[in-house]
Amino acid sequence: MTKERRSRVAIIRRGTAACCVLAVAFFGQPQPSTQTRRIEALGPPALASCEIGGAEPHAFRIALAPGDFLRVAVTQRGVDVAVAILGPDGRPRGTVNNVGGAYEREFAAVIADQGGDHVIEIRPVRPDLPRGMCSVEVLARRLATAADRRHVEADTAFQQASTLRVQGSADGRRRALPEFERALEGYRDVGDRVRTGETLNRMGLTLNELDRFDDALGRFGEALRVFESLDDAQWRGVILNNIGLAHHLRGDLREARDFYERSLPFRDAVADLTGKGFGLHNLGAVLMQLGDYAAAVDHLDQALAIRRAEGDRLNEGNSLNILGGVLGRMGDVTRAIDGYTLAIERFREEKALQGEARSLALLGQLQVDLGDYQRGLSSLQRSLTINRTLQNRRVIADALVGLGDIEAARGAHDQAAAHYTEAL
Question: Is the pLDDT reported for residue 34 higher than 50?
Fold first, then answer.
């Protein structure tokens, strides 16, 4: 698949670098919580729920003795949260998996190094997004066993791997894979099938990002079998989408379409609107590439409706970019330009330079195709300026070649030669 096509595929990545940075910022210097609730020492499962949004944190207190093991799961519905466990001195403790999306679970675990009240603190990752619901469940609370210590070791390896992966470099992703393997071995040792499946999924995504699509499909297949054995509808929807993604990235468009379609009923079964939005977006992208433009517009319009309802401006911009491409191919040039223009606004609101650069490039190319060279070249130059700021050399080189082609077609051979020379 070409780079252009690859850039149009929305990836279900459970967590981003931005989320991790926010979690560190929130919990590096603990602040008093506005709401505190006590989870009674009833043993698992102890459960508490809350509505959360804005900048307000929620804290759930639980007493631990030295050497106690605590493991909690935080289920999110419509809001992406970051979780921390704070010790009696208010400092972070244990391992935290702050990599879930707005409809997935976060996990945190600690082996207490001192007795007293520990705090499970939850904050929205994005205070500007709408409110949602979350629940905290105590999965285990007991004197730590050898298996518990093994579980914490696996959690630590998973956290290290996730940190390496979200660096965004090929080297970081390659270094993440052995850490994921360590985590996978640990989860299998203690019989944690959910975390086994989640780790296999994360390995598949990492392999996708390294263009190792066959290996990615192998890991996704293992993850799917795990979640089928657990009859977990939400995770089956995630994995089927990601199998579609691997096929999409390597150019197997019909296989990608089939897996994207298979994922959607599972999203509906658990009312996962965010996940459904990604699935509809991906399906719209592959339908465009297959030439089924009317169906692509229908699916992208549905994705946009979800993203607007959730206030997700970043992914609204991504879907507008794909929709603009479809409308341009259908000859609906006015709507295509309007879509690209709105996408640019959304990315600027989110300070998402890469998305803004992509929208400007798509808009510029359409303007050039329509013969509006002045506006088209202006849009393309603005895109190039942003990419220079981002120091994305490969994208810069591709953009320079494109500008050279346009100038050559206009007969501006000196300018074309200058662009080609810089690209080289």
Answer: no
Model's pTM, two decimal places?
0.80
Query: 97-154, pLDDT tens digit by residue?
Result: 655 555 567 888 999 999 998 988 888 877 777 777 888 888 889 999 999 999 999 9
Helix (H/G/I), strand (E/B), else coil: 38: strand
How many angstroms separate the Cα of 335 from the Cα of each of 162, 326, 342? 40, 10, 10
DSSP assignment of 49-76: EEEE-TT--EEEEEEE-TTEEEEEEEEE
> What do you get for the CA distance between the two ends of the chain, in Å?
23
- Tell me which residue of 374, 373, 381, 383 sits closest to 409, measured CA to CA: 373
Written as one string, the DSSP assignment of 68-109 is EEEEEEEEEESS-EEEEEE-TTS-EESEEE----TTSEEEEE
Q: Which helix H or strand E contains 151, and what residues bound it?
A: helix 146-165
- Which two three-digit tokens encode residue 279? 């699935």
231 CB-near residues (< 8 Å, 6+ apart): none
Give yes or no for a cis peptide into 45 (omega within 30° of 0).
Answer: yes
Cβ distance 46 to 126 under 8 Å? no
CA distances from 267 to 230, 240, 284, 304, 313 (A): 16, 11, 16, 16, 21
**What does 341-365 look like in DSSP terms, one character per residue?**
HHHHHHHHHTT-HHHHHHHHHHHHH
CA torsion angle 323 325 330 332 (round to 10) = 70
Q: Which helix (H) or strand (E) holds 217?
A: helix 213-230
Place of tokens 């658990």: 270
Tokens of residue 262, six digits: 């298979």
CB 250 within 8 A of CB 266: no
Nearest-angstrom CA–CA distance, 327 and 113 = 60
